[in-house]
């Protein structure tokens, strides 16, 4: 597991959610204001930060390499 921290300008997060919700509904000025209020209430110094844990894996195989075992699969955790 790896801890990740993502920090994005709050205005970009607001615009992302406004565009996302437009897929499903008409985003009125009132709804946009509610999205803005929600994001800004969870932002600090103009940035929205999210912390989380992720498990990343990489699946590799050798194909056509000299000296590589044909069809060998290697799993490498990050």
Give your account of this protein's structure.
The chain is α+β, with helices and mostly antiparallel strands. The protein is 33% helix and 33% strand. The protein is built from 2 helices and 4 strands; from the N terminus they run βααβββ. The chain has helices at 10-22, 29-41, and strands at 2-9, 47-54, 57-61, 73-77. The strands form 2 sheets. Strands 1-2 form a two-stranded antiparallel sheet. The chain is elongated, with a radius of gyration of 21 Å. It starts with a strand and ends with a strand.
Quick structural gist:
The chain is 33% helix and 33% strand. The chain is α+β, with helices and mostly antiparallel strands and 78 residues long. It has one domain.
Tally the structural domains: 1
Mean pLDDT: 86
Beta-strand content bin: 25-35%
CA-atom Rg in angstroms: 21 Å
Count of alpha/pi helices: 2
Sheet with the most strands? 2 strands, antiparallel
Backbone structural class:
alpha+beta
Distance between the ends: 9 Å
Number of strands: 4
* Sequence of strands across the biggest β-sheet: 1-2
Order of helices and strands: EHHEEE
Molecular shape: elongated
Low-confidence stretches: none
What helical percentage do the residues reach?
25-40%
Highlighted features:
78 residues, alpha+beta, two-stranded antiparallel ribbon, 33% strand, elongated
